[in-house]
């Protein structure tokens, strides 16, 4: 139990997940792919899972007050909008 | 004024009584990290936009992903040692907390050392910031991240020093918790940068 009153997460289990995902990620990157979308999509998906694990368990976002989650999520949403608009400008056909 | 009547100021008492119920230091760190999210989103967003809009080399042909994979492993390990340091001080074991703080400091220092080695090697091979758009974005993103790691290492060294002076206890260890948030964030950003810059 931590001083915040929540049960201590199993940090070593998170570590093994992070390590395992990193190994799979590298294997995915070096294996030949026919589609760049498949290569990029797989790696980004695994990186996002790893980042979420770090945020939820190492940064204790899972156990924090909801206001922290809202604060952090709102900046992530703003960030995603920023990136999406940038990508859209490059990918979508121009009038 | 009589000395006995002087108002005593206990900073920890103030910490415990905030309107949000969250200590100011911790809330401040979260707000700072939110601004950092926007900063790195700007960098990553620019990288993606530039990459979509121009011819791009395969990073695996120019960068040593095995070396950086090892460095990523070290940074993940240092994140684990940081959170273990917090866990041990919360349990009241200052000896193990100090040990894990030292290991975190070691991990961060090794990461920086490997990054300097990588930069020297790449520059020696002619891959510099003005050789291509990839070069510019690579050094900008990894350089800013490296600067954050450098600042983190300085702060960890400072907090480790304080730990050895006995400044942290089971009741009062907000400094380690707040520093841990920063360090895990740096790890989180590297997880994304490694995937986007090195592997794709």
Task: Assign the structural class of chain B, choosing from mainly alpha, mainly beta, alpha/beta, alpha+beta, or little secondary structure.
Answer: mainly alpha
Please bin the fraction of helical residues of chain A.
over 70%
Strand content of chain A: under 5%
Number of strands of chain A: 0
Nearest-integer average pLDDT of chain B? 89
Identify the overall geometry of chain A.
flat
Principal-axes geometry of chain B comes out as: elongated
The most extensive interface between chains reads: A-B, 47 and 50 residues
- The H-and-E topology of chain B, N to C, reads as HHHHHHH
Distance between the termini of chain A: 59 Å
Report on this model:
The complex is a heterodimer of chains A (95) and B (200). Chain A has 95 residues and is mostly helical. Helices cover 73% and strands 0% of the residues of chain A. Chain A has helices at 11-30, 36-58, 66-91. In chain A, 19% of the residues are buried. The model of chain A has no long low-confidence stretch (mean pLDDT 85). Chain B has 200 residues and is mostly helical. Chain B is 78% helix and 0% strand. Chain B has helices spanning 11-16, 24-53, 59-62, 65-90, 94-124, 133-164, 174-199. The N and C termini of chain B lie far apart (69 Å). Chains A and B meet through helix 1, helix 2 and helix 3 of A and helix 2, helix 4 and helix 7 of B.
Spell out the key features of this protein.
heterodimer, A: 95 residues, mainly alpha, 3 helices, 0% strand, B: 200 residues, 7 helices, 78% helix, elongated, disordered N terminus
Q: How is the secondary structure organized here?
A:
The complex is a heterodimer of chains A (95) and B (200).
Chain A: H1 11-30, H2 36-58, H3 66-91
Helix pairs in contact in A: 1-2
Chain B: H1 11-16, H2 24-53, H3 59-62, H4 65-90, H5 94-124, H6 133-164, H7 174-199
Helix pairs in contact in B: 2-6, 2-7, 4-5, 4-7, 5-6, 6-7
